[in-house]
Design brief:
By secondary structure, this protein is mainly beta. It is about 5% helix and about 70% strand. The strands form two sheets. A ten-stranded antiparallel β-barrel has the order 3-5-6-9-10-12-13-14-15-16. β7 and β8 form a beta hairpin. The longest helix has 17 residues.
């Protein structure tokens, strides 16, 4: 899942030679700056997915932490690389990873996983289920400082958040049949050991603002906020990313950073089936994920 991150990082390093040839802006010259942050964040996660009620056909949200017993609180790795050039410009890339797995020996409610690779699956009350839910979040973007001073900067950014989502259910899972109207027939299904895989790659462009202010020598407050909503073809999604933090410089090249982050993504993917050359909508698959918590990193600038 993290392979795209390393590829983009290599490309980013490879372009620095051409970009660094331009080193003057207005009346002053500047030196290109590279910053690497490596740290952890404390994630208080909330995630859910839309499923179908086999009794009435209604759609409802099922909670991964409550129903599937996935960990709600975790310490997870974090990486960010920033390249600043021509005084006001910067490129940045960061990556977060959230991998969770849990067993529930007795599911509390019936539900249908609908239209997974063209098949519907029934999970019944009391079934034993192992759930694996992995998310990598890759962010890459460009920022421009609109206002600058000796101890502050305010700018705007454009970028792309990409979520790589992998979900796997393993346990007593029934396979539902479809009738001629593409309606699931799950009334007399015998659950057998089964594995259901579900993966989504969701790129979400974003617009944002950011700022920094050195309020005391070697102590800097920084913040960014990014938002976007998009509806394109079969995908409907929204993104909110807000971070507030303080950086303390401890020597010439090294700093410590402490921040608080709120991140929320909601993605719906419309599913359709084809019968007799006609497309019939099943329902919108929905994946919602958010985490709120502090982040800590060691930063090296050169």
């Amino acid at each position: 899942m993290i392979k795209p991150f390393f590829c983009i990082a290599i490309m980013l390093f490879g372009t620095q030679t051409a970009i660094s040839a331009q080193s003057q802006s207005d009346h002053s010259s500047t030196t290109d700056k590279y910053t690497i942050d490596i740290g952890v964040f404390y994630a208080n996660s909330d995630s859910n997915m839309a499923v179908t009620n086999p009794k009435n056909g209604g759609v409802f949200l099922i909670d991964f932490e409550d129903e599937f017993l996935l960990a709600e609180e975790q310490y997870l790795p974090y990486f960010e690389f920033t390249y600043e050039f021509n005084q006001r410009h910067k490129l940045f890339i960061d990556w977060k990873s959230l991998d969770r797995e849990a067993n529930n020996n007795s599911i509390s409610q019936d539900f249908i996983l609908e239209d997974i690779d063209g098949q519907d699956y029934l999970i019944e009350t009391g079934a034993a289920l192992n759930t694996e839910f992995n998310i990598d979040i890759l962010r890459i973007g460009y920022g421009y400082d609109i206002w600058q001073g000796s101890n502050y900067a305010v700018g705007v950014s454009v970028g792309l958040h990409t979520m790589f989502v992998e979900i796997e259910f393993q346990g007593n899972i029934g396979t539902c049949a479809l009738d001629s109207s593409l309606t699931s027939q799950c009334s007399n299904v015998v659950a057998t050991p089964n594995v259901v895989d579900y993966s989504v790659t969701a790129p979400l462009p974003n617009l944002g603002v950011y700022g920094s202010y050195e309020f005391y020598p070697d102590l800097t407050f920084s913040a960014h906020a990014q938002y976007f909503t998009i509806k394109y073809d079969d995908v409907d999604g929204s993104l909110i990313d807000v971070r507030l933090g303080v950086e303390a410089k401890i020597c010439d090249n090294w700093s410590l950073k402490l921040a608080y982050n709120y991140y929320d993504v909601d993605i719906s993917i419309e599913k359709q089936r084809r019968i007799n050359d006609n497309k019939i909508k099943t329902f919108d698959h929905n994946i919602n994920y958010s985490f709120t918590g502090p982040m800590f990193a060691i930063s090296y600038a050169f």
